[in-house]
Amino acid sequence: MPPAEGPLIIAGRVGNRRVITAACPAALDLGLRTGMTVSRAQALVPDLRIEADDAAADAAALERLALWLLQRVAPIVSADPPDGIVIDSTGADHLHGGEAAMLEALAGKLALSGITARLALADSWGAAHALAHHGADGVTIVPPGASDAALAPLPLEALRLPAATAAGLRDLGFETIGDLMDQPRAPLTRRFGEALCRRLDQARGLASEPIAPLRPEGLIEIRRAFAEPIAAPETIARTIGKLVGQLCTELTAKGLGARRLDLLCARIDNRIEVLRVGLAVPQRDPARLTRLFCDRIVTLDPGLGIEIMTLTATIAEPLVPRQAATSLLEEAAPDLSGLIDTLSNRLGARSVFRFAAVASDVPERAIIRIPPLVDTATPGMEAWPDHWPRPARLLPRPEPIETMALLPDHPPRWILWRGVRRHVQCADGPERIFGEWWKRDAEAQAVRDYFRIEDEAGARYWIFRQGDGEDQATGSHRWFLHGVFG
Amino acid sequence: MPAVRPALAELRARIGEIDGTGARQHGVLPFGVRELDRRLPQGGLSLGALHEVAGGGQGAVDGAAAACFVAGIAARMKGQVLWCVTQTDLFAPGLAQVGLPPERVIHVEAGDDISVLAAMEEGLRHGGLGAVVGDVARLSMTASRRLHLAAKGSGTIGLALRRWRRQADASDFGQPTAAMTRWRVSELPSAPLPVLGIGRARWLVELIRARAGDSFDLELEACDGAGHLRLPADVADRSAAAAGGRYIAAG
User: Fold this and answer.
1) Which of A424, A402, A413 lies closest to A479, judged by CA?
2) To the nearest whole angstrom, how far is the Cα of A363 from the nearest Cα of chain B?
3) Helix (H) or strand (E) holding A78
4) Best CA proximity match to A272, nearest among A60, A455, A91
5) Domain range spanning residue B180?
6) What is the per-residue pLDDT for A375?
7) Mean of the pLDDT values across residues A319-332?
8) What is the pLDDT of residues A360-411, one digit of tens each?
9) Would B145 be classed as within a structural domain?
10) Do A347 and B97 count as a contact with CB atoms less than 8 A apart?
11) Using CA atoms, how far apart are residues B191 and A211, in angstroms rounded to an integer?
């Protein structure tokens, strides 16, 4: 929605009144609130743009967003109408580099798509829902087992109760979820029905609340139910082999290859265990796919037994047969995608990468990590300048050192790094690097002068001085060690 | 080993085969430095085998010279290089300057030593890579034997870059492993220049242990842009007798 054209509200109907169901930030700043009648809003803000509420379109958009998340974040995703999406991230967070990194990346992706979202990660659906809707922060992570403490200060509405129940509880003097937790159950149930205690238990993780995973139309899916629950790893492996075989047959029939596969194992205690496998290039080789799953069977907890296994090709892309070698003399490049898939499914997709050059003079910004199978041989790719030597090892961040140096352009006589004093025998430099003033205002005048120095034992280091040695505006004139040469 | 009799060479090769050195099946990679190659058992680094490299002194911790030495070896192999580390501090432009451009290296950031070893083994077994490098601190006999057998099976060269968190831990380098050769690369003062500045880097390259070979040490000039080592001019011009002994840097 373009906010530049003035405040916008969405108007819906409650009973026979027209009320605001959603308002843009500009409208909220003007004092409009959800639940206010439209006539009153129009009286307050004359040039108000009003759009009619379209519940069906909203639901469809939410479903589309859920599908987008299903393909990128975790295998169990479901829309939580009217305005939420619930994700079961169990077994998927390690592929994103941990829970915090996963939420950060997710928030970034959503923000790029123009979606303002509040994220919460907790032990149960109820707790995550409550914190996302009523928590203090935009991104909340509740450590395992700490749901009660996080829920206690939240208002009663966070429990997903009917409005009448919440109002009734307020009449009795209950304000927060914490007030309800230690109350005797029987009188509450007698007065408000069993929904209240059920919602409370679901939020605290005492009662289970399975998520019905979103399964869009047209997804290739193989399902197998067992008469007798299975739990032994060998049996699971055999079943995976059969499921993968069937899936590959279907993929071949449609000319597709899988980029992402999800294996959902429904346990008899109503929990769903998940294995997700990502592939660098579309694949439909049963042996290879089976191996990727079987590598990770140890992470699968079958509990008392698995009764249904479902294998889904969440992302499938066209896979056409390719000519292997172009001439008799030319040797075909070995296919590394199998190795890369194995490593990235074991260690996480971010852990297997290649470096590529970025046009930047600042050394630590001149490199970027790219997926390992991206074709970098294309013309027009950047390359690093090689007229200045670069160290083999770069410290994660420059470490401050003590030095004795003549200003403005002499290398130091000695440096003190990690408690050891080294006398400089010879040096090269300075190589002056200017801050990227065209990208960052803070670096308008920044300068780094790099020197390559060698101590009496032959160890060679890459050091720099912040600033040009004359003008304090260009930097603090402090020295740092940034890399080690071989 | 000059003037080897054919019968002796044949016998040596057969012992090598039983011993599992693998050079016979997979060949060797010569360094291109005569002084170095003639003292290696098969005239070069055996392919399809595991080799160990560590830095000397401070280099045991930062592993910069060892990384360049290893990158130089990997650069002279054909095909992609898998480089496994616990946490990446390799600077790709630096590697590119010793002949290993970024499009030839697949980096794996494994998080811990055990995962590094597992990733190395996976890479060695694959067989489609040019070389597999791993930065590891601890390398047990069992782990090194697994890596060596994986390398032998596929013919890929495995390079274990030994690197420790503290210099004191470097004593671990004396422990026996199944590696074919064990190298130590330490930085030496660079070649003196007639003007101010730093000349081409020099290393003291020590072969500490070699299966079916003798250990030695040699002063060499560091890898150039294509990964080639070179004998310093002042050493190359000396007589053959003097070159056999230990060279002590003069001046």
Assistant:
1) A402
2) 9
3) strand A76-80
4) A91
5) 24-236
6) 64
7) 64
8) 888 888 888 888 887 655 544 567 777 788 999 999 899 999 998 887 788 8
9) yes
10) no
11) 69
Q: Residues A352, A340: contact at Cβ < 8 Å?
A: yes
Q: Is residue B47 part of a domain?
A: yes
Model confidence at B249: pLDDT above 50 = no
Quote the minimal CA–CA distance from A212 to chain B in Å. 35
In angstroms, the Cα distances linking A80 to A186, A207, A262 are 30, 18, 21
The DSSP H or E segment spanning A163 is helix A163-171
pLDDT of residue B19: 64
The interface predicted TM-score (ipTM) is 0.85
Cα dist from A90 to A35, A98, A388, whole Å: 37, 11, 48
CB pairs under 8 A between A and B: 168
The two tokens of residue A188 are 């509450």
**With contact defined as beta carbons under 8 Å apart, do B10 and B24 qualify?**
no
Domain count, chain B: 1
Give the burial class of A215: count Cβ atoms within 10 A of its Cβ; 0-12 exposed, 13-18 middle, 19 or more buried. Answer: middle
**By the CB < 8 Å criterion, does A433 face chain B?**
no
- The rounded distance, in Å, linking the Cα atoms of A469 and A447 is 9
Of A339, A396, A459, the CB nearest to B122: A339
Of A300, A318, A319, the residue nearest A240 (C-alpha): A300
Q: Which of A257-261, A473-477, B155-159 holds the top average pLDDT? A: B155-159
Here the tokens at position A83 are 């305005």
Closest CA to A231 of A286, A287, A269: A269
Contact A486 B79 (CB under 8 A): no
In the numeric block, which tokens belong to residue B211? 């299966």
A98: left (phi over 0), alpha (psi -120 to 50) or beta: left
Query: What is the C-alpha separation between A49 and A30, in angstroms, rounded?
Result: 13
The dihedral region occupied by A35, where left means phi > 0, alpha psi between -120 and 50, and beta the remainder, is: left
Q: How far apart are CA A433 and CA A449, in angstroms?
A: 6
Q: Read off φ and ψ for residue A15, nearest 5 degrees.
A: 65, -125
- According to DSSP, the β-strands at B45-46 and B50-55 are unpaired
- Any domain includes B28: yes
Contact criterion met (CB < 8 Å) for A454 and B90: no
Residues in CB range of B7: below 8 A, 6 or more apart:
none
Nearest Cα to Cα of residue B29 among B17, B41, B16, B46: B46
CA of A198 to nearest chain B CA: how many angstroms apart? 42
Strand order in the sheet with B181-188: A367-370, A352-357, B105-109, B81-85, B131-136, B157-162, B50-55, B181-188, B202-210, B216-221
What's the sign of the alpha-carbon dihedral A202, A204, A205, A206? Answer: negative
Q: Are A30 and A3 in contact (CB under 8 A)?
A: no
Contact B28, B48 (CB under 8 A): no
Q: What region, left, alpha or beta, does residue B220 occupy, with left being phi > 0 and alpha being psi -120 to 50 degrees?
A: beta
CB A383 within 8 A of CB A374: no
A12-15 contacts at long range (C-beta below 8 A, 24 or more positions apart): A12/A52, A12/A53, A12/A55, A13/A53
Measured at the CA of A349, the angle between CA A61 and CA A305, to 5 degrees, comes to: 80
| B159 within some domain | yes
- The structure tokens listed for B49 are 């085998």
Asked whether the beta carbons of A17 and A56 are under 8 A apart, the reply is no
Which CATH number fits the domain that encloses residue B209? 3.40.50.300
pTM of the model: 0.77
